[in-house]
Write a structure and sequence with these properties.
- The protein is an all-alpha fold and 289 residues long.
- Helix content is 74%, strand content 0%.
- Helix 5 (72-83) packs antiparallel against helix 6 (89-102).
């Protein structure tokens, strides 16, 4: 965002305010100077009231309603602000509908924040149906947002349902981000074999990040055998790092196998001869646990 010298000065003043009364006073001053309705200035002002410790949703709603012609950035900020609060998520989605009717071009962030409102409202289907009613087809980023929300909320069945529906019902081909979310969903739930099978069924080549997601789940659920296989895949990709061996050693340590912990240290040295000396201390601590 390119700002003029005057805008930068006002933005600095906004950022320097640490108490609501100071922002209220600045609000009054800006109204007199007509700078308050400068979109760049207003966005920073709105953001200050949108986040803790100065958060005030009622004030955000009031000043936003007074803005003559809000742009996409202002709408996205307001929708996101309401998406963070379960009690006001419905207001965020109403703003989304208002935005669609306004004819302003939407961007990827708009879909994401609107779906976060639906997450708080407890209805992904509600969000998708309303998007379609407004003439918007859910795209790959929509489903990335949904699957990510399912992962963080522990919604395994819902995640499976949306993952299957995205290509079947909406014509969206799963990409590596969608698969990554599903591996995370299944891994968190302890469904490690299903996650492993899903990776092998992928139409795209799994990357190191996906294998590490599964390796992390193996550590949490103490699955030694699968953890070993995952590290083998990282070696095949030539993407193994010292941290991967530490994770595997964590699994061994949790299973009471200190001999394999030190064996992994030797293996990690072969693959990473210049590794940080702190790694040795980590392995030693694991052996002593």
């Amino acid at each position: 965002m390119n700002a003029t010298h005057q805008e930068k000065t006002i933005i600095s003043l906004i950022k320097s305010c640490t108490q609501k009364p100071h922002l209220f006073q600045l609000h009054s001053l800006l109204l007199r100077s007509s700078q308050f309705y400068n979109p760049t200035v207003f966005l920073y002002f709105l953001s200050r009231f949108a986040h803790p410790p100065l958060r005030d949703l009622s004030y955000c709603d009031r000043i936003f309603s007074e803005f003559p012609q809000p742009n996409i950035s202002l709408y996205n900020t307001m929708i996101r602000t309401h998406s963070l609060n379960r009690d006001s998520a419905h207001k965020g989605f109403l703003l989304y509908q208002e935005l669609v009717r306004s004819g302003i071009s939407l961007n990827a962030l708009t879909e994401t924040v609107a779906l976060k409102c639906c997450t708080k409202m407890g209805s992904f289907y509600h969000g998708i149906l309303l998007m379609q009613r407004e003439g918007i087809s859910p795209g790959d980023q929509t489903f990335t947002a949904i699957l990510s929300a399912c992962s963080h909320s522990g919604l395994v069945n819902e995640g499976r349902t949306f993952f299957e529906a995205m290509s079947r019902d909406y014509g969206v081909t799963p990409n590596i981000h969608h698969y990554g979310c599903m591996v995370d969903i299944l891994g968190r739930a302890g469904l490690l074999d299903e996650a492993y099978e899903l990776i092998h069924s992928m139409r795209v080549k799994p990357d190191a990040a996906m294998w590490r997601t599964l390796l992390g789940a193996c550590r949490i659920h103490r699955n030694v055998a699968l953890g070993e296989r995952v590290v083998e895949h990282l070696v095949e990709l030539k993407a193994q790092e010292a941290g991967d061996y530490v994770l595997l050693s964590n699994i061994y340590s949790a299973s009471g196998n200190s001999e394999k912990v030190m064996l992994e240290f030797e293996v990690s040295k072969l693959h990473n001869p210049n590794q940080d000396s702190n790694i040795f201390l980590i392995f030693c601590n694991l052996c002593l646990q």
